TrEMBL record:
<feature type="domain" description="DUF7884">
    <location>
        <begin position="20"/>
        <end position="94"/>
    </location>
</feature>
<comment type="similarity">
    <text>Belongs to the CFA/CMAS family.</text>
</comment>
<dbReference type="Pfam" id="PF25371">
    <property type="entry name" value="DUF7884"/>
</dbReference>
<feature type="active site">
    <location>
        <position position="369"/>
    </location>
</feature>
<dbReference type="GO" id="GO:0008610">
    <property type="term" value="P:lipid biosynthetic process"/>
</dbReference>
<keyword id="KW-0949">S-adenosyl-L-methionine</keyword>
<dbReference type="Pfam" id="PF02353">
    <property type="entry name" value="CMAS"/>
</dbReference>
<dbReference type="InterPro" id="IPR003333">
    <property type="entry name" value="CMAS"/>
</dbReference>
<dbReference type="InterPro" id="IPR050723">
    <property type="entry name" value="CFA/CMAS"/>
</dbReference>
<keyword id="KW-0443">Lipid metabolism</keyword>
<dbReference type="InterPro" id="IPR029063">
    <property type="entry name" value="SAM-dependent_MTases_sf"/>
</dbReference>
<keyword id="KW-0808">Transferase</keyword>
<dbReference type="GO" id="GO:0008825">
    <property type="term" value="F:cyclopropane-fatty-acyl-phospholipid synthase activity"/>
</dbReference>
<dbReference type="InterPro" id="IPR057206">
    <property type="entry name" value="DUF7884"/>
</dbReference>
<dbReference type="GO" id="GO:0032259">
    <property type="term" value="P:methylation"/>
</dbReference>
<keyword id="KW-0489">Methyltransferase</keyword>
<protein>
    <submittedName>
        <fullName>Cyclopropane-fatty-acyl-phospholipid synthase</fullName>
        <ecNumber>2.1.1.79</ecNumber>
    </submittedName>
</protein>
Length: 419
């Protein structure tokens, strides 16, 4: 009968079916095996139990958890590690659908449960996020025109792109659902003279954003609330609504109610821009996919990613007529690469703030997401719509030219560098 190590190696070689895998494995007893030379990645498997888990499930999930818990050592560039993990993943059976882990016991996407999930992810430490986010503390996909911009410029380009899409005008009442640390509202108030309301469930973000508006002299025009979007009281009040990187926390079963809230608070003829991660394939919505267990457990408890068709369908069901759809998938890959580089540059400070385990969670999660966006495992869509409940045509531009400051462009290529 084969020992566990031999069974594991034979299983991998059979699953690879001759494919190149630049990996050297160092086992717990010191034995090493190279699938190809030179090896771009050295993986140290520190226990036989880890090998048993790899034989039973998704390699991306198992290795991600093992890395966080210190059960596996990894040497190599992130992009090489992730490519090797993807290769290993093809050699192992996929887990059965369903059985998504639930952490806190209460019903998923209740107000209490959502508040706990948001607290877990966003209330780590403002100082921790400040280490690797841009100067405006923006934790969502940036917007690149050349791919060579630094993260500060790219995030401000995202602000400008969103504001132009929404056709903001002085005096517009703008609602930002999931306003984060307040960067977009501050930008809109300073550059477009809007009156704004921002809501967040994160206490850390709330206090930071509120203090920011006071510090920048915007408190008389921008109100920050610690509030669930379902509790926004206004009706037919806002000229424009924006939601950036928030609806991933809503839950697919609640999208109709989410867009229903937007419909309720938006004036007739008002515009909404929803910016969020979407599934790249329609069947990715309900089934288990590689890496999802890791993200559920360590990163975004109860996060759910809908496909674009569902977003458009649910918006249309709430009289939100879609005007424009843009896929920013390569932009998010590049954004995440910037974040990982900046986090690694502040590794010692980050570990001192949040501990080595949480540092490893964020590092491997963001590197994995960068790889996943570039490999088309996920997408990022901005969907622009107008509230149209009557028969008369609401005003809108004839063309998209108003969205762009210039017509220059370059092909999207991620700059992995030495990541």
């Amino acid at each position: 009968m084969k020992d566990l190590r031999s069974h594991f190696l034979d299983h991998v070689k059979k699953g690879l079916d001759g494919a190149h895998l630049p990996l050297k494995i160092r086992f717990w007893d010191g034995y090493t095996y190279s699938f190809a030379e030179p090896a771009a990645v050295v993986m140290e498997l520190r226990s036989s139990q880890l090998v048993s888990r790899l034989l039973m499930g998704s390699a991306l999930d198992v290795l991600g958890e093992a890395y966080v818990e210190g059960e596996v050592g990894l040497e190599g560039r992130y992009q090489d590690i992730l490519a090797v993990a993807e290769g290993l993943n093809r050699a192992f059976p996929k887990k059965k659908e369903g059985n998504r882990p639930r952490w806190f016991g209460r019903k998923a996407h209740s107000k209490e449960k959502d508040a706990e999930s948001i607290h877990y992810h966003y209330d780590v430490s403002n100082d921790f996020y400040r280490l690797w986010l841009d100067r405006n503390m923006v934790y969502s996909c940036a917007y690149f025109k050349t791919g060579e911009e630094d993260i500060d410029l790219a995030q401000e380009q995202k602000f400008a792109h969103i504001c132009r899409k929404l056709h903001l005008e002085p005096g517009d009442k703008l609602l930002d659902i999931g306003c984060g640390w307040g960067g977009l509202l501050a930008w809109a108030a300073q550059h477009y003279a809007i009156e704004g309301v921002g809501v967040t469930l994160s206490e850390a973000q709330y206090h930071y954003a509120k203090e920011r508006m006071e510090r920048e002299g915007l408190a008389d025009r921008v109100e920050i609330r610690l509030q669930d979007y379902r509790d926004i009281p206004e009706r037919d009040h806002f000229d424009k609504v924006v939601s950036v990187g928030m609806f991933e926390h809503v839950g697919r079963a609640h999208l109709s109610a989410y867009f229903g809230v937007i419909r309720r608070v938006l004036k007739e003829g008002g515009w909404v821009l929803n910016h969020g991660i979407t599934a790249s394939q329609q069947d990715d919505e309900n089934g288990h996919h590689s890496g999802s267990d890791f993200i559920d457990k360590y990163v975004f408890p109860d996060g759910e990613i809908p496909h674009l068709w569902r977003v458009v369908h649910e918006m249309a069901g709430q009289d939100l007529e879609v005007l424009d759809v843009e896929n920013l998938r390569p932009h998010y890959a590049q954004t995440l690469i910037h974040w990982v580089r900046r986090l690694e540059a502040h590794k010692d400070e980050a570990i001192a703030m949040v501990g080595e385990k949480r540092y490893r969670i964020w590092a491997i999660y963001m590197a994995g997401c960068a790889y996943g966006f570039w490999r088309n495992w996920s997408a990022l869509h901005q969907v622009l719509a107008v509230k149209q409940t009557g028969d008369e045509l609401t005003a809108r531009p004839w063309e998209r030219r108003y969205q762009y400051a210039d017509d220059s462009f370059r092909l999207a290529e991620p700059d992995w560098g030495e990541l």
